[in-house]
Amino acid sequence: MSENVTIVPSTLEGTVRAPPSKSYTHRAILAAGYADGATVRDALWSADTRATARAVSLFGGAVDRAEDGTLEVTGFDGRPEVPADVIDCDNSGTTMRLVTAAAALADGISVLTGDESLRSRPQGPLLDAIAALGGEAASTRGNGQAPLVVTGPIASGEVSIPGDVSSQYITALLMAGAVTDEGIDVVLETELKSAPYVDVTLEVLSDFGVDAQETADGFSVDGGQSYRRAGGEYAVPGDFSSISYPLAAGAIAGEAGVRIEGANPSAQGDTAIVEIVDRMGADVDWDREAGVIDVSSASLSGIEVSVEDTPDLLPTIATLGAVADGETHITNAEHVRYKETDRVSAMAEELGKMGVETTEERDSLTIHGSDSSLEGATVSGRGDHRIIMSLALAGLVADGETTIEGTEHVDVSFPGFFDALSGLGVDLTAAE
């Protein structure tokens, strides 16, 4: 059932803990699946990561969650079975890409699908790569989108793939390639966007004893490797995509200061949000050793910022720009249109309902902060967790009440988001 949340302008104060990283959790669950098993601690248990856990189970493994949230993963040891059912990836693009490549290792046919949003997202380059490696991979509608039918097993070899649609294609092929006989070389046809996400993959692979590396023209992973986690346990770091919301909230409405715990350094590109908030003029201090960020509000000024490597930050930056003086120009943003929704248009249109002036181009979004008045309004979350959370931030400082429709979708990455805001003193009410 759809849930709406109404937010009254509020000032924030207090401490919030970052949820675990969704990107690392996906990769850790699947890496433990590729292994003979592992314990994954501090995992994000959300709609998206549950989809990856279900896939591991369908490949012959199992994921059991303890009362303290720890995941005990029984792996399929590099040899996924043919699934006994359709793999439902729900709304998770990461699950679909990573699991499609894993399915291509199975000696038989796998079928993957997802919700309406996921069935509109591009998968064609990964299907072509699987075909080039000797498998069969087809979109049932012939449009490069799910439902997908994948037949393996694939062999080793070289594939070329665009780098500007989704870095998840590269992640998927590297994770699967390690357990092929002779590995996979990925040649990039275009410049890689979202490069830090591949860095996260390389880090997790290394943590599970798998060697993969960047090459002159792409990435490579040797075959015949085994996934093994030394000590059998892996701890997931905090999620900087999610940290961006309480950090931005503190920057625009945290007069008495907001502290964010669990902000430990990692390969995540979205750590850039700390520098972005600082550049815009907020009072922010990151104690990297302690994993603590302190932020308080100040007068913000618009900046120019590229989201080439940090697409998930666009909605957060757009809201910051709506509050800031001057123009905030977000560039290199075309790939942000191929997420759960077209996030460039979604933020322009929903902020527009609140009185924010924007200029939208194919590859950029400019927010005219000085020409805008932020007024309370009823806005749509577009079925997208990041749109919902970013619009909630705008409601903190809008003139009047802001009602966000369809807020249940925050469960994808930050299940306790509205509880966290309430704990910081935000005046909000939820209604079905």
From TrEMBL:
Protein name: 3-phosphoshikimate 1-carboxyvinyltransferase
InterPro entries: Enolpyruvate_Tfrase_dom, Enolpyruvate_Tfrase_sf, EPSP_synthase, EPSP_synthase_CS, RNA3'P_cycl/enolpyr_Trfase_a/b
Organism: Natrarchaeobaculum sulfurireducens
Residues the entry annotates as binding 3-phosphoshikimate: K22, S23, R27, S166, S167, Q168, S194, D312, K339
Origin superkingdom: Archaea
Domain Enolpyruvate transferase: 9-421
Keyword Methyltransferase among UniProt keywords: no
Similarity-based family: Belongs to the EPSP synthase family.
